[in-house]
Design goal:
Chains A, B: It holds the Pfam family TetR_N. Two copies of one chain form a homodimer. By secondary structure, the first copy, chain A, is mainly α. The first copy, chain A, has a single domain, classed as Orthogonal Bundle (Tetracycline Repressor, domain 2), CATH 1.10.357.10. Chain A is built from ten helices and no strands. The radius of gyration of chain A is 18 Å and the shape is elongated. Chain A starts with 7 loop residues before the first helix and ends in a 7-residue tail after the last helix. Chains A and B meet through helix 8, helix 9 and helix 10 of A and helix 8 and helix 9 of B. The first copy, chain A, binds a DNA duplex (18 and 18 nucleotides) through helix 3.
Chain lengths: 193, 193
DNA sequence: GTCTATAAAGAGATAGAC
DNA sequence: GTCTATCTCTTTATAGAC
């Protein structure tokens, strides 16, 4: 019951781990710190997860899945390519900056995964990137964006993923403001207000 | 002689540490691994550095200084705001992707610094960002870039800093190609070829 | 499912000889 | 400046009782 358990309790534990991995980084977060935050002793942790790395894997899986779900919801019913790009950008920043945990860990801590876990998760990552690929391709074909798709996509996602390094949730700008600013920067002249 | 030693030997050791921190991350690189790569025993390491974190500090300092120096050289004699932006972008990608070590560590491993080291290095970082601030401000005033300076700067640097996550040195694109692509993406329509 | 207790390994760092 | 030897502490993980 350890590997494929999606009980409410397990989700709580994964959420707590996500918060700590986000705040301190995976390597610096010990199993004792994790257990204490979960209200249990460190030995009990290994009843829920086979090892520490499995916790990271669960956090990253949860981060990718929530990013994917919110992105799909954001795109629902949207037709115009530029509107799609804005919606996708807002969705991405929303999971990154509002619920600043699992998605951030998914972006920054993949190096600590075992090859097996990486192999398991790489499909999710590719699925998410495919969403971006198709929307950016549409924008290029509609002539509102210019450049090679893969380069534009990597630059856009880089600009977004780096926001976690400088964004201040207490500041005056909302994630949606930032999304608008990026899309306006990438496209010729201002199209949105 | 440990703290303020810039001998050739010390620079070699810092360069080796930079490579390992870049490849495996700071936390996962043990002092034994460092020492082995340096051709000495782990005990000898502490003749050169007070502790492990001091090695990281030296690596980051070296990364910031080389980024700064190359940026200054790139800007020398350049007058046009767009040309300055392109030069600065090329310089940044050059230190990040060609000599893929100390500058990358400087960007990604600041969380493992002690408050004292951070305080020591934050001035260097601010100095480097000021270069970017002034060039982007010039571009906005010259009407070739649009938006708030700080937002544009963070997005541009984010897009650049994220390249280390996906750039393939064996691929067909050079760092200079990428720099051109980014500047063209940020500015209205294509200005450079 | 959680506890206590602890094994086993690895980490950073030190001391003193050469 | 490097070595050997080792200390001390922390880490992940396990075993068995409750």
């Amino acid at each position: 019951m350890t590997l494929t358990n999606n009980s409410k309790r397990r989700k709580e534990l994964v959420a707590i781990a996500a918060r700590l991995f986000f705040e301190q980084g995976y390597e610096r977060t010990t199993v004792r710190i994790l257990a204490e935050a979960m209200g249990i002793k460190s030995g009990s942790l290994f009843h829920h997860f086979t090892d520490k790395q499995a916790i990271l894997c669960a956090v990253i899986e949860s981060g990718m899945q929530s990013a994917m779900q919110i992105a799909h919801e954001a795109l629902e019913g949207v037709q115009d390519p530029q509107d799609k790009l804005l919606a996708l950008t807002k969705a991405h920043l929303s999971t990154l900056l509002t619920d600043r945990n699992a998605h951030v860990v998914a972006l920054y801590e993949w190096r600590s995964l075992t090859p097996e876990s990486l192999h398991h998760l790489v499909g999710l990552r590719d699925e998410y990137e495919s969403l971006w690929r198709s929307v950016i391709q549409e924008c290029i074909q509609a002539d509102v964006l210019h450049g090679e798709e893969s380069v534009v996509r990597h630059f856009a996602l880089g600009a977004l993923n780096w926001t976690v390094q400088w964004y201040d949730p207490q500041g005056q700008r909302t994630p949606d403001d930032l999304a608008l600013a990026l899309v306006n920067l990438l496209m010729d002249r201002t199209h949105f207000n």
